[in-house]
Specification:
Length: 78
C-alpha cells in the first residue's frame, strides 16, 4: 500500500472568496504580515502499489477537482 496526497487549489485567475475572508479576519484576530491566502483541499488516499500516476490523474480529474476552476498535484508519500 502507498499513501498519496492530492492537493487541489483554485487556479490563479479564479477569485478565492474564502481566502479573501481569511485575509480580512487575520488582522482583526491580531495576526499581521499575511497579505494573501488561497484556500484549497487536500485528499489523502491509500492505494495499491499497482495504481500508477495515470490512474491517479484520472481520479483527480474526474472526482476530486473541477478542472475548469481548479488545478491539482499528486504527491506520493510512501
Amino acid at each position: 500500500m502507498a499513501r498519496v496526497v492530492v492537493d487541489v487549489m483554485p487556479k490563479a485567475e479564479i477569485l478565492d472568496p474564502q481566502g479573501q475572508a481569511i485575509v480580512g479576519a487575520l488582522p482583526r484576530l491580531g495576526f499581521a504580515g499575511v497579505s494573501d491566502v488561497r484556500q484549497g483541499k487536500r485528499f489523502e488516499l491509500e492505494v495499491d502499489d499497482a495504481v500508477d500516476d495515470a490512474e491517479l490523474a484520472k481520479i483527480a480529474e474526474s472526482l476530486l477537482c473541477n478542472t475548469v476552476i481548479e488545478e491539482w498535484k499528486v504527491t506520493r508519500l510512501s
